[in-house]
Specification:
With about 260 residues, the chain is of the alpha/beta class. The protein has one domain: TIM Barrel (Alpha-Beta Barrel). The protein contains ten helices and ten strands. The strands form three sheets. Strands 1, 4, 5, 6, 7 and 10 form a six-stranded parallel sheet that branches. Strands 2-3 form a two-stranded parallel sheet. Helix 2 packs parallel to helix 4 and helix 9 packs across helix 10. The chain is globular and about 45 Å long. The protein starts with a helix and ends in a 7-residue tail after the last helix. About 45% of the residues are buried.
Length: about 260
């Protein structure tokens, strides 16, 4: 893929969708995009990027495209995001925690199978959303294998992609993931997709509740990426200084958000 084409490939990281049919449990308001705003964003992707696809399909044939991903497996992914995607002929990856599937506010296995049957990609977000940085080598490998095999068994499709919960990952996660049967890791660091290098985590742009269409369109023109990377670096420094749990308690006090801080 040429560099000029690569600059127009961006992976977006969504979480929950808000509105009628959405469950409030397990949703972080900071990352919950209103259904009307979400529909406008999808229409913008069709206009500026020619549509959107899932990372599974993009990695098989990298090209100019918008890549859509969803973390955590909220019930709203099935109730609201999936119908909106199908209406526009778009695809996305849904990264789920098999140890939590079906809990309050989260999609069921039946819902995930229905989405997979329509062409959506169901992938791994770890077993139960525990941060990988809290696991030793043995526990990490057990978590990765257990999650992949459980999703493959319950959904009936290959699981080749991994997204670390909370974006927390060690430097060798791509190598460890390959040992456990994954082909690629998708991280939370902002950036443009510039290839399908399995030796590093692929970048994703985080979509928050306040993201407007103008900013989304700018990303696909390569604008605003450096600013997002700077913010990510500042937050990363805060996490390393405070530690994940102290950082989250501070974030909850400041934002009134849930426990899935980025």
């Amino acid at each position: 893929m040429s560099s000029s084409t690569a600059t127009h490939s961006v992976a977006l990281m969504y979480h929950a969708i808000g509105g009628a049919g959405a469950a409030d449990a397990a949703q972080d308001p900071h990352y919950t995009v209103d259904a009307t705003r979400f529909a406008a964003q999808l229409d913008a992707l069709v206009r500026v990027a020619g549509g959107a696809t899932c990372a599974r399909d993009w990695l098989a044939a990298p090209r100019r495209a918008a890549v859509l991903t969803f973390d955590d497996g909220h019930a709203s992914n099935h109730a609201l995001a999936w119908p909106a995607l199908c209406e526009r002929g778009l695809r996305a990856d849904f990264f789920v925690n098999p140890g939590k599937v079906g809990e309050a506010g989260l999609a069921s296995w039946a819902a995930l199978r229905e989405m997979a049957a329509s062409g959506m990609s169901i992938q791994s977000h770890g077993w139960n959303h525990r941060y990988f940085t809290e696991l030793d080598d043995r526990a990490l490998r057990e978590d990765l294998r257990r999650s992949r095999l459980a999703i493959e068994d319950r959904v009936g499709a290959a699981v080749t992609l991994l997204a670390p919960p909370g974006g927390r990952m060690r430097a060798d996660l791509p190598a460890v993931a390959r040992e456990c049967g994954y082909a690629h890791v998708l991280g939370s660091e902002p950036g443009l997709l510039d290839g399908a290098d399995a030796a590093r985590a692929l970048p994703r742009m985080s979509v928050t509740a306040a993201l407007d269409v103008a900013t989304l369109e700018a990303w696909f023109e390569g604008r605003g990426i450096a600013r997002a990377r700077l913010r990510y670096g500042v937050l990363g420094l805060a996490k390393r200084t405070l530690g994940d749990r102290r950082y989250e308690r501070l974030r909850e006090r400041l934002l009134g958000a849930g426990d899935r801080a980025r």
